Amino acid sequence: MEIDHIIFLIHPCCYEPLAPEVVRRDNLQLFVECEREVKKRWLAGLADRPANTLLVQLGGPVALRDIAIEYLGASAVFYPQSEFPADGSLSEYYRRLTAEFNTHITANALTFDPATVASELWGESFEGCVPGYGGAFAEYLNLRQSPKMRFEMTVYDSRFLFKARHWELIPLANSDVEAWIFECHDGTGAAMFQARRTAQWIDERRVHLQLDDKRLQVCDKQGYTLWPQTPWEKGKAEAVLPYSMTLKDCNWRWVRSVGMPFGSFREVIGAASLTAKENG
To answer: Which of 12, 23, 213, 263 has the CB geometry, 3.0–4.6 Å to 60, for a possible disulfide?
Structure first.
């Protein structure tokens, strides 16, 4: 069978096995409920899949894999078993996953054209493993078409995305990098940069921005402020300053607008540039 569409389902159902007391203790109910809704979409999407689709399910319940097999057939479901290297080498793990993928393709008489095959990203989380492994699969399989991030098919880690008003993506010119920008429920903005055809967790390219230290912040997924180092205070001069971060750091950093209209925030994010490596 010629595969013309690949779904990368990354680490599904992370919250499903948690005991109720753990959910209460760690205040995870928001994510449990989000995952339940997204799982319904996964199942509906598999039931109504495009023709000639291959599902790559990295981790997650065997029961979910078995449902996928019912919909797609065993040959069209790849459930990797590669062990994570003891030394923590991501590049070695990606190599193992790729070798196992190629074995599955050959053993099941499947073919695909890396230049034309379409693909999309589902799973958990939107800000972590989905772009991390999604980009790695794209790079190591030499996919020429960027996988499509399906935000509605992911579970997020950042609470401020709850009930976001809308989201959009801004491609960075002449690259595989996308800026995902959200208008949050309280009117603030949030933006994250993701690589689509590289293994982002080991990607040393840098994103460069010009950030207003009064109106913008850089934070992690829990909302902890990383930049500026000290908060703006009344009487302090407002300044627009250069800020850069590697793509491997972008996987857990957000740019947040706390005092800037969303349209202006979009312009700041859209003006970002990319360099191959850190200057100097």
So the answer is: 12
